[in-house]
Amino acid sequence: MAAVPELLLQSHAGEIELLPALPAAWPDGSVSGLRARADLRWEVAWQNGRLTQATVRSVVGTSAKVRYGDKVITINLSRARRNR
User: Fold this and answer.
1) Which one of 2.30.110.10, 3.65.10.10, 3.20.20.210, 2.60.40.1180 gives the CATH number of domain 3-83?
2) Are residues 51 and 84 in contact, defined by beta-carbon separation less than 8 angstroms?
3) Contact 43/22 with Cβ under 8 angstroms?
4) Per-residue confidence of the chain (84 residues) as pLDDT tens digits?
5) Which of 15, 26, 31, 61 is the S-S candidate for 79 at Cβ 3.0 to 4.6 Å?
6) Is 56:62 a contact under the CB 8 Å cutoff?
7) What distance in Å separates the CA atoms of residue 3 and residue 71, rounded to the nearest whole number?
8) 32 in helix, strand or coil?
9) pTM
10) 3-state secondary structure of 23
């Protein structure tokens, strides 16, 4: 069971990676309630195997590097604020 969230979100090497190992059998979908380091809570949606939306909420306020494919961005979050 613990392996399923790892297909959708991984937190390692100082980055949070979205959809790192999305199975081809799941071309469309969404998930909420994923948790990453720094107490970040994620909702992620995809269509045709590509990310369409990611929403993150920080309980404590933090910054994080987020990777999707080859693109990496740094996000800065206030406490309990949602960013899209």
Assistant:
1) 2.60.40.1180
2) no
3) no
4) 778 999 999 998 889 999 999 999 999 999 999 999 888 999 999 999 999 999 999 888 899 999 999 999 999 998 765 556
5) 61
6) no
7) 24
8) strand
9) 0.86
10) coil
